[in-house]
Amino acid sequence: MPRRKHPFKYLLKIIQHPIILSLFYFTAMKIVMTWPAVLHMGNSVIAQIGDNIYFVWLVRWDQETLFKLRISPFFNPYLNYPDGWNLASTDITPTMITLALPGSILFGETWRYNFSMLLSFVLSGWGMYLWVRRYTNDDASGLIAGTLQELGVSYIVVDSTQYTDYSKIDTTAQSLGLVLLKISEYQFVYGFP
Predict the structure, then answer these.
(1) What beta strand segments (E) does the chain contain?
(2) For residue 158, what are the contacts with CB-CB under 8 A and spacing of at least 6?
(3) Domains of the chain: which residue ranges?
């Protein structure tokens, strides 16, 4: 009877792949850059009161509409009564809202908002890494580009209370690497420059 390979060896091989290691690198980098925010993800909102409170409310609204009210999350009949409020025409971010729904159910809306914000920064650096690695076939170049992307997107003016407002960063800048990677895939498939 042939010996079966140990499943942990396969898992270890996957974890040691440069793409997975780079994801761990960008995650660790963001944790260090936002320390001690990760310790208070469930009970504090990152930054001053502003758009972040709206997004925490929006996270709760989506959870309520999907599981309790059974209505569209893109329209709130309770706000701006009697007309209601069309959320589809606002700066709603369905990706951020749906990305961490399980975390919202388990840990609350504040945790979900903070997790989504931090994850967007991690994906920013990782996406740039993947794009540069694709064109250079060099992991070091990808790490440098991803690090610069993550640092550049994270460079924000700190106000007088020493809290950085991550919610005011343009999400286009955050997802630049992933957008460029997707464009390059279409260029490869369809052959246009």
Answers:
(1) 75-76, 85-86
(2) 164
(3) 21-187
Angle at alpha carbon of residue 188, lines to 182 and 193, rounded to 5°: 95
Assess whether pLDDT exceeds 60 at residue 190. no
With a CB cutoff of 8 Å and minimum separation 6, the contacts of 123 are 174, 175, 177, 178
From CA 16, how far away is CA 33, in angstroms rounded? 24
Total count of residues recorded for the chain:
193
Closest to 121 (Cα-Cα) out of 43, 48, 46: 46
Integer-rounded Cα Rg, in Å, for the chain is 20
Q: What is the pLDDT of residues 34-63, one digit of tens each?
A: 888 888 888 888 667 777 788 888 888 888
| Percent above pLDDT 90 for the chain | 9
Residue 32 phi, psi (nearest 5): -65, -40
- The pair of structure tokens assigned to 119 is 């994850």
**What is the dihedral sign for C-alpha 177, 173, 146, 124?**
negative
Residue 138's alpha-carbon distances to 16, 27, 59, 177, in angstroms, are 16, 20, 39, 16
